[in-house]
Design a protein that fits this description.
273 residues; mainly alpha; globular; 14 helices
Length: 273
């Protein structure tokens, strides 16, 4: 059993780790309320002298933040829904259906996780351009609808479900489609929520692909929009940080709401192979 000193030491380490983790967020928040002079002063100020809300107003006036947030929300939500549908169906097939070469096919499917995104980016871009999908929602969404990670996560979770339920359903004449909708999906809400939160956050923060295939301001996403606050000649870092805070708010809210499901789904899906 751990002594009180050991327990206190562990908590102290955890507190320090938490502070180091949250420091960039606090730094961005505090700088978003500073004036131009305060944000570039040396040594840097830790706290603003007063809450300068004009920074947020100026961000909204300088760039179409609402348009960027709307675009990111549409793209991230569409990718999340698409991944949930495709990954859950493929995970059910790999978990419960019997067909020749299933193990080999699943291994090949998982091997795609080891291919860096940069390797497939140019072929994807050429495909999107040949379909005339540059500067469109479908160009931002379609390349990310299938995910090997999501299929693996859900398959691992599905394998933990009690076999007795499926045997009883089969005796009652339940088809695979009915078992999928009536048994698997209701029992797999933690894993589905985990994949949904992970997918939404991951694609909300996507930068390189939207930068590559969008040309007009009306199709830009939030990550590209924030970079518009900084030019080559100069940068008002207080405005940049205000834009960063605006971009972070939706993701932080989603993360707080779905954190328990995210941790629960990932840990439960990693138990059984």
């Amino acid at each position: 059993m751990m002594t009180r000193l050991q327990t206190s030491l562990i908590y102290l380490i955890l507190v320090i780790a938490a502070l180091l983790t949250i420091y960039p967020l606090l730094f961005a928040l505090f700088n978003s309320f500073m004036t131009d002079a305060e944000s570039v002063s040396y040594p840097p100020n830790l706290l603003p002298n007063r809450l300068n809300w004009e920074n947020y107003k100026e961000v909204i006036l300088n760039i179409p933040v609402v348009t960027f947030v709307f675009n990111s929300f549409i793209v991230s939500t569409a990718i999340m829904v698409g991944q949930l549908i495709i990954a859950s169906l493929s995970a059910y097939a790999f978990a419960y259906l019997k067909f020749r070469g299933k193990t080999v096919l699943f291994t090949l499917f998982l091997s795609t996780m080891m291919i860096p995104w940069e390797v497939t980016m140019i072929p994807n871009y050429l495909t999107i351009r040949s379909w005339d999908w540059i500067d469109t929602y479908q160009g931002l969404i379609v390349p990310f609808l299938a995910t090997a990670f999501g299929t693996f996560l859900l398959r691992q979770f599905f394998l933990q479900l009690p076999n007795e339920l499926f045997e009883a359903a089969k005796i009652d004449g339940c088809s695979h489609l009915r078992s999928f909708f009536s048994l698997v999906l209701p029992l797999s809400r933690p894993a589905l929520a985990a994949l949904g939160v992970y997918s939404f956050l991951n694609h909300w923060n996507m930068y390189l692909w939207p930068l590559l295939i969008t040309n007009t301001v009306d199709m830009r996403t939030v990550q590209i929009g924030v970079s518009m606050l900084k030019s080559e000649e100069s940068a008002s870092w207080n405005l940049v940080f205000a834009g960063v805070v605006v971009v972070l708010l939706p993701t932080l809210a989603l993360l707080v709401l779905g954190l328990n499901q995210l941790v629960s789904g990932i840990t439960k899906g990693a138990v059984k192979g």
